[in-house]
Write a structure and sequence with these properties.
seven-stranded mixed β-sheet; globular; alpha/beta; 324 residues; Glutaredoxin
Length: 324
């Protein structure tokens, strides 16, 4: 299960955890928010599409909400959607506002140090994407030092960096055979990959709400990706009868009918262990040489950028993560 149901909540709650609680208002009729309050609430909670965010920003400006608060909302939007390239593009604006940061205008930051920590956080992401190990460690350490309460938001990037280091020496044996979820002879990975340019392995569980929400999208990918030279195999790590029964029931309810390869991981020496799968859902993209090209969450831009390098016609879908 993906860590940030949203990092928004980690940031917004963690950085304000030291504040005194606001006394509860006396019970009475619910207050009707002013147009400005409604615009601000929509701005900070928008997680739909970029056009929807733009519309929320336009209304926020109309209601006199500060540019600083709007920048904060854009930051939350991209963090929550794990759109790292968009975050990096925000860096100059964050740096420009460092000198005149006004805590009174902030909607999510309690101190200027929290704001500066975000700058270091974005710098660490840029370093991570550039493969700059020393730069990443420097900036993520500084971010933690400036705002230790946001450590839970920084941790996934440390994990990502360590994962990439481990995957650099990992190789997949295509001679490995996995049982089909619906029975029958074990299926070798080489047969699934045959004639394709890469294999995308989707690790999931019917007991994960996020996996369940994404399942129709995965079923669509199982139908569409093979035509774009990408083989897709969905793998369940848990071999228990209850999990497998629930998985079959869940797949049977998908319309149109789920096709493709739906497999069960090995009991001994499982792929999930070799690929360090510790949360679900996870996608692992493997080259024809068995090299791991990506290991992480299905919504990550890095996955879809890696897929586009194999076939430029592949477009990142708006996956239903179940986290809205």
């Amino acid at each position: 299960m993906r860590i940030p149901a949203s990092i928004v909540s980690l940031l917004a709650v963690a950085i304000s955890s030291g504040a005194e609680p606001i006394p509860a208002a006396p019970a009475g009729p619910a207050a009707v928010p002013t147009p400005r309050e409604a615009a601000l609430e929509q701005l900070l909670s928008e997680r739909g599409s970029v056009p929807q965010l733009d519309a929320a920003i336009a209304e926020a400006k109309k209601q006199g909400i500060s540019e600083q608060a709007i920048l904060e909302a854009r930051f939350l939007f991209y963090v929550d959607r794990t759109e790292e390239e968009a975050l990096i593009r925000l860096l100059p604006e964050f740096q420009k506002r460092s000198e005149n940061f006004n805590v009174e205008e902030s909607e999510i930051f309690a101190t200027k140090e929290d704001w500066l920590a975000v700058i270091e956080y974005i710098k660490s992401i840029a370093a991570l994407r550039a493969g700059d190990k020393d730069g990443f460690k420097k900036h993520i350490t500084e971010a933690f030092w400036l705002s230790p309460k946001q450590a839970a938001a920084f941790a996934p990037h440390v994990e990502k960096f360590r994962m990439e280091e481990m995957m650099a020496t990992t190789r997949i044996d295509f001679g490995t055979s996995l049982k089909s979820l619906n029975g029958g002879e074990p299926v070798p990975l080489s047969r699934i990959l045959e004639g394709k340019k890469a294999l995308l392995i989707h690790f999931w569980s019917p007991w994960s709400g996020e996996c369940e929400a994404m399942l129709p999208d995965i079923a669509t990918l199982a139908r569409e990706l093979p035509a774009k030279d990408i083989a897709l195999a969905s793998v369940i790590s848990d071999n228990s009868d209850k999990v497998l029964t629930d998985a079959r029931t869940m797949l049977g309810a998908i319309e149109p009918k789920a096709t493709g390869h739906w497999l069960v991981d090995l009991e001994h020496g499982p792929l999930s262990r070799a690929l360090r799968v510790q949360s679900l859902p996870i996608m692992v993209l493997v080259s024809t040489e068995g090299k791991v090209l990506f290991n992480g969450h299905p919504s990550s831009d890095d996955l879809w950028n890696a897929l586009k390098k194999i076939n430029p016609s592949i477009i990142k879908p708006d996956l239903k993560t179940g986290l809205e």
